[in-house]
Amino acid sequence: MVLILTKNDMEKVMTMRENIEVLEQAFKEHAQGNVKMPLRPVIPLEEFYGRISFMPAYVGGGMRALGIKVITAYRDNPTKYDLPFIQGTVLLYDAENGALLSVLDGAYITAMRTAAASGVATRYMARKDAKTLGIFGAGVQGETHLLAMCEVRDITDVKVLDISRQKADSFQQKMKELVDAKISIASSPREVVESSDIVVTVTTSKEPILNWEWVRQGCHINGVGSHHGPRVREVDGMTVKNSLVVVDSKEACLKEAGDLIDPIAEGLITQDHIHAELGEVVIGKKKGRLKEDDVTFFKSVGLALEDVSTALRTYELAKKRGMGRTVPV
Asked: N or C: which end of the chain has fewer CB within 10 A?
């Protein structure tokens, strides 16, 4: 029997705090060599302004999470088909015998685990006294990142900016009921950055929206959106050059993260500028912050290890609480 878990089921069992703890352990396993995870193949579908990605992974050690996420991203879905921009499914398997255990909503897992990974990075990289947060992008990732940042730091003030004022207004109204922080809508990118101890970029911008001239000393930046290759980036080259850079996966970022690929191509940095992978920081092999006034930059492209470890914990919690629906396959 296979357990089917919808977004509604998962919202009732997986909290952001739980997800951050799960991913901290998963990144430990990654750093200790207990993860098998090929780079994701992506099939672009230009005629439909979309793409489909396949993300398999096995997280061994003390976790033993095996599965694959299949996820699609179609630009015109919200306006043309009344469908989400991102849709996906995670298939979770029993690592011992290969049996299919569960089918889970992949879009919800993506929203949660992406922010939880930034939460892990922020826990180890941001200044302990960081209280102000700037968010570029008022979509689902903006919402989950606000929750994640509030789990790892005592956030008191939030500034959000989106190209859609309506989305920013909706974000403000929704999130002020969920977090104990003042949320205001910024009028410019500069206002977001200059006022923030922590900055999160979760947009689809192809051009840098964050400028080094605005960054305050000691700031931590989570660069999350705008990847999938060169000439697509949210953060300008000088910010990357002047920051202590940590990535979720060096191999994946050098293939997919324009925020790093472009400064390397321009001669601003080399591959050696990448200070560490997040797992190395979690196990204490490398430090996430060397000095209080360092600007730190975490670049993530999203890893399958995050999906399968989140899926396994969600499955375990759902089974304990009798959530979901079992079906024969």
From this structure: C
